[in-house]
Structure prediction request, 105 residues.
Amino acid sequence: MVHAFADPKQAQQNNIVIAHELLHALGASDKYGVGGRPVYPQGYAEPDWPEQMPRQAAEIMAGRYVNAAGRVVMPPSLEQCVIGAQTEHEINVDAGFRQQYASSN
Ligand SMILES: [Zn+2]
Prediction:
């Protein structure tokens, strides 16, 4: 079940919700906590940056980022979302890629 936004202007954000729910089906866990705030560092698109640095992109399983005003916001579209390392591991992308490219070496 997906709780999508009904307003056509929010179609881009529906893509984020749908991708998030699809990744749950593949085994990914949520990366946000109280108030929808991303969990640092795994819930951040740039986990190597300091936590307080403003962001413009979200880790898909957090679904939101903290902007320059300190507000927790949803990206305007799926293009401002990334799949972080922990999510990759949960959905087995990292192991799958290793297997794929190990055989060609
Ligand atoms: Zn979720």
